[in-house]
Specification:
- This protein is an alpha+beta fold.
- The protein has 7 helices and 9 strands, in the order βββαββααββββαααα.
- The chain has 2 domains: 57 residues, Phosphorylase Kinase, domain 1 (2-Layer Sandwich), CATH 3.30.200.20; 142 residues, no CATH class.
- Helix 3 packs antiparallel against helix 4, helix 4 packs antiparallel against helix 5 and helix 6 packs antiparallel against helix 7.
- The termini are far apart.
- The structure holds adenosine-5'-diphosphate (ADP) and magnesium ion (MG).
- Adenosine-5'-diphosphate (ADP) binds next to strand 2, strand 3 and strand 5.
- This is Phosphotransferase enzyme family protein.
Length: 214
């Protein structure tokens, strides 16, 4: 059905071009994308920058093809500097958490992305756009901020990563934007259950978030 080579691949999905203007994101584990698609449509209606969804069918999500690098790529090439990158992440959190939750009756609950790191932001001519909503749920905004800090810290504490040093700088700059990270322990236990690293590595990353506050 598709050309053998995806346009891009992440940890969970392969993304295939569908002409010049659309892509299909296919979950490799076959997981259904309907909830994700409904959330993206809601957020777009609220003016939040997400790709327009055209179709959700089992593991396949058809959406706007965004033009531009991921924020991770833009940070590596220097197209975006570290401080601007940190501001972009903090602002995307702030805007998301300003919206009403869609499902929860708890007035304090907000939509949380829970995987909002530089590879899930695309830098387009119309501004940054957030992709990869498969981890989203509703809850306390502080958990979302803590997850971003923790995920960036995972890279910063990985001695085999060629971008460990800039990730450390990004973490410091992000924390300067957000102030103290409050739900770090909850984020670490969620990440231990859902992320790619073992508990020892997640604990190392959490310790880095704590010390990065200085
Ligand atoms: N709408 C899109 N337009 C262009 N490229 C995209 C789009 N959505 C995703 N991508 C590319 O595909 C990669 C993987 O998509 P993503 O949704 O993040 O999947 P994963 O869950 O596997 O990380 C992204 O990092 C990005 O490079
Ligand atoms: Mg991703």
């Amino acid at each position: 059905m598709f050309a053998a080579t995806p346009l891009a691949s992440g940890r969970c999905a392969d993304v295939y071009a569908l002409g010049a203007d659309r892509v299909i994101r296919r979950n490799r584990d076959g997981g259904d994308v309907r909830a994700e698609a409904e959330l993206m449509t809601y957020l777009r209606g609220q003016g939040y920058p997400v790709p327009e969804v055209f179709r959700a069918d089992g593991p396949d999500l058809e959406m706007t093809r965004l033009a531009g690098p991921t924020l991770a790529e833009a940070l590596v090439t220097g197209a975006t500097d570290i401080r601007s990158g940190a501001r972009i992440l903090a602002t995307l959190h702030h805007r998301l958490h300003a919206l009403r939750a869609r499902l929860s009756p708890d007035p304090a609950a907000r939509v949380l992305h829970l995987d909002l790191h530089p590879q899930n932001v695309m830098v387009t001519a119309d501004g940054p756009v957030v992709i990869d909503w498969g981890s989203a749920r509703e809850g306390r905004p502080e958990l979302d901020l803590a997850m971003t800090a923790l995920i960036v810290a995972e890279v910063a504490t990985d001695p085999t990563s060629p971008v460990a040093a800039p990730a450390g700088d990004l973490l410091t700059a992000f924390l300067a934007e957000t102030g103290p990270i409050r739900l770090l322990d909850s984020a670490a236990s969620l990440r231990t259950r859902t992320g790619p690293l073992d508990p020892r590595r997640v604990a190392q990353a959490a310790a880095r978030v704590r010390t990065a506050h200085g």
